[in-house]
Amino acid sequence: MKFAMILGRHTGIVAEAHTAHKNDVMIIDDWISARDVREYAVEYLPEGLYYDRNRYLDVRDCARCGNRPRACKKCYNYDGQQLAFDLDPENVDCPYHGHIGDKIARGSGLSFCMYEFKQVRGQAIRLLCELCSSYRDVRVVYSGRGFHIVVYDEPAYSLSVGQRKTIAKEFAARYDIDEWVTEGGSRLMRLPYSLNALVSRKCMEIKGERVLKEFDPRHTGQVIPKFARSS
Prior knowledge:
4-stranded antiparallel beta sheet; DNA primase, PRIM domain; 12 strands; alpha+beta; 8 helices
C-alpha cells in the first residue's frame, strides 16, 4: 500500500517550509509502520491524507517507475484494487440549493447543507445493506463530508475494469455516488482517523447500522477535533 498527501490545494493553508508543494500530490511509499506515516503528517501538516486503493507486489518498484498512474493496472506489479463507493452530499439534488451543476456555477461546488447530508446518510445505510448481501466484509467510513463504503472481500480486489464500470453504472442509477471512484479512475481514498481540513472533521469508520442512523457530524464528539469544540 502507498499513502499520499495534498498539502493545501483547497484551503490555501500550508506549512511555510512546504509552500512550493502546496498543490502537489506527495506520495509516501517508504513507510514501514503507522508511526512512519504519522511522522510525515506531522512534518507536512497536509489538508488531506490518503491511502492508495491499489495493491502492489512491491511498492519499492513504484518509486522507480516513471509511468503515469493510469498505467498501473497493466503493470506486473499491480495486485488489484479495493472496491469502493463515494457518497458526497453535494451530489444530491437539493430543493434549497439545486443540482451539483448549479452549485458549481455559483462557486459552491464543495459546500452542502444538512438536507443533503441526511440524504446521503440514508443512501449509505441502504447501500451498506445491499452490498452486505453479496460481500462479507463491507465497512462504512465517514469522510469528513459524506461516506465511503469500502469492500474488503478478496474477490472484489480482482474485479476487472469492465466489471467495475458495470457496477458503477448500476449503482449510480440508485445512489448519488461518484462513478469514477467505483470504476477505479480515482485510486486515492481519505485515510480513516486523519483530519479532513476542508470541514475540520475527522475521517472515521462507523461501526454498526444503528450508529450510522444516528450519526450527526455536528454533535458526534469522536469526529470533532479538540480545536473545533466549543468551550
